[in-house]
Write a structure and sequence with these properties.
This protein is mainly alpha-helical. The chain has nine helices and no strands. The protein starts with a helix and ends with a helix.
C-alpha cells in the first residue's frame, strides 16, 4: 500500500463529513427501520453498502467521466429525484390507506411487500411490513446524486495511477468508506428501530410520521435537482 498516514487521515475526514450529511441513503434506512424494525433496517444498510461499492468501482473505471460530463450527471440526478418522489408517493398512499382503514374499523390484511406498492385493501397500519429494503436501498444508492458526485470527484483524487499497488490502495479506501458508513447507518438503524417500537402501530403518530418521511423524500428530491 502506497497511501501514507496523512492521505488516509484526509480521506477519512472527508468520508465522515459526507456520511454525516443528510441524504437519500440515510433517510431511506431510517424510514425503513422505523416502519419495519432492525432486520429490515440492516438489510437496507447492506443495499446501501453494495450500491456505494458499485459507485466506487465505476468512479475508478470512469476516471471522473460522470462529473466531467454534465449531461450524464444531470440525467442521473433527475432519475434519482424521480425515484425519491416515487418512494414518497408509496408512503403517502400507504398512510392514506391506513387512515381509511382506521375510520372504517377494518381488520388488518397481510402487510405489503414494498413501500412503493402499497396495499390495495385498507390497511390500518403496516407495523412490520415485508418490504424489499435491500433492493430499494440498492437502487436508491445507485441513483443518489450526492454519492455519485462524491465518488466521482473526491474518491478518485486519492488514487495514484502510478502507485505500485493501485488495487490495494483502492481496497483500503473502499474499506474506510464502507466502515464509516456502517458505523453511522448502524446507529441510525438501532435508534430508529427503537423509536418505531415505542410508537403505537395503529395510532395517528405513526401515520403522521409516514407523511413526514414522504415530505422529507420530496424535499430531498427538490434539493438535488435545483442548482
Amino acid at each position: 500500500m502506497s497511501l501514507d498516514a496523512a492521505t488516509l487521515a484526509a480521506f477519512t475526514a472527508g468520508v465522515v463529513v459526507i456520511v454525516l450529511l443528510p441524504g437519500a441513503n440515510s433517510l431511506y434506512v431510517v424510514a425503513t427501520s422505523l416502519r419495519a424494525g432492525r432486520g429490515a433496517g440492516f438489510r437496507a444498510m447492506l443495499g446501501v453498502f453494495l450500491g456505494d461499492a458499485i459507485l466506487m468501482v465505476l468512479a475508478v473505471l470512469s476516471a471522473q467521466a460522470l462529473s466531467a460530463n454534465p449531461i450524464i450527471f444531470r440525467i442521473l440526478t433527475w432519475a434519482g429525484a424521480a425515484y425519491l418522489c416515487w418512494l414518497a408517493l408509496g408512503l403517502v398512499r400507504s398512510a392514506l390507506a391506513r387512515i381509511r382503514a382506521k375510520r372504517q374499523h377494518r381488520a388488518e390484511p397481510a402487510p405489503t411487500e414494498n413501500p412503493t406498492h402499497p396495499p390495495t385493501a385498507p390497511n390500518p397500519i403496516i407495523a412490520r411490513p415485508r418490504i424489499a429494503p435491500f433492493r430499494t436501498a440498492l437502487i436508491t444508492s445507485l441513483l443518489n446524486p450526492k454519492a455519485i458526485l462524491f465518488f466521482a470527484s473526491f474518491f478518485v483524487q486519492f488514487i495514484d495511477p502510478d502507485s505500485p499497488t493501485p488495487l490495494g490502495d483502492i481496497a483500503v479506501l473502499m474499506v474506510i468508506a464502507e466502515a464509516m458508513s456502517a458505523l453511522y447507518l448502524a446507529a441510525l438503524v438501532l435508534v430508529a428501530a427503537r423509536v418505531g417500537r415505542s410508537v403505537e402501530p395503529h395510532g395517528w403518530l405513526a401515520i403522521v410520521g409516514t407523511f413526514v418521511a414522504a415530505a422529507a423524500f420530496v424535499a430531498l428530491a427538490v434539493r438535488v435537482v435545483l442548482p
